[in-house]
Amino acid sequence: MEDVHVRLGERDVLRGVDVELTERRVGIVGANGSGKSTLARLLNGLVVPTAGRVLVDGLDTRRDGAAVRRRAGFVFTDPDAQIVMPTVAEDVAYSVRGVPASERDRIVRDALAARGLAHHADHPAHLLSGGQKQLLALTSVLAARPRLVVADEPTTLLDLRNTRRFAAELAALPQQVVLVSHDLTLMDAMDRVLVVDDGRVVADDAPGPAVAHYRRLVDEAAPASRRGAS
Ligand SMILES: Nc1ncnc2c1ncn2[C@@H]1O[C@H](COP(=O)(O)OP(=O)(O)OP(=O)(O)O)[C@@H](O)[C@H]1O
Q1: Cα of 52 to ligand 1 centre, how many Å?
Q2: Which family does it belong to (predicted)?
Q3: CATH class name, domain 2-84+148-227
Q4: Is the terminal CB of the chain with fewer CB neighbours within 10 Å at N or C?
């Protein structure tokens, strides 16, 4: 991201973000409305910069949006917003729809087996539990073999067990992962963490110091009367 600015409506949502993300695991934390989702969405061209450039694998997201989206898979917070087909297997098949049918069936079978969803293949996707739906969303994204996986608060709807399971799935991926989350425990597994505040990256460090920076920001923003109590 080269000096990226994003203006949405009347608001400067991102103001001069300049980062090169080369680590395998990159976390993004920050307050509600600070610009994290916008930053994540820049990475697959769902949002394009108002000024500056975003390059993914050397491709400009403004010019080569479709090619960028093939490289960068996006996992949304709410899997219901992402699951588009009636059954579990059909949903995974949809994300590899360009592949010949015989190969597609094999990809779908392998992908479902890898996430423990094989016996749900013909089940209606909407009947899965929240955790299973999130795994299905990840499975469908991964079936398209993206080089980069961007996940925007993917564990918000999950209980502790499924959060752990999903985090383990993300951790095991060979791809580069960019993870936006309010769950600071997930940041321990990152190689690098960006702290976003009011549209800027205000810290960019290893997880320990970055999360400490974020905690200080929150403490400083709290009214003095509450600070002692926290
Ligand atoms: N399409 C839009 N038009 C106008 N403003 C927008 C639009 N999308 C986002 N915003 C604003 O941009 C700011 C940043 O939003 P963003 O979703 O990136 O924040 P976030 O850090 O991911 O927040 P959260 O943690 O609450 O998900 C917010 O103030 C939001 O209201």
Answers
A1: 19
A2: Belongs to the ABC transporter superfamily.
A3: alpha beta
A4: C
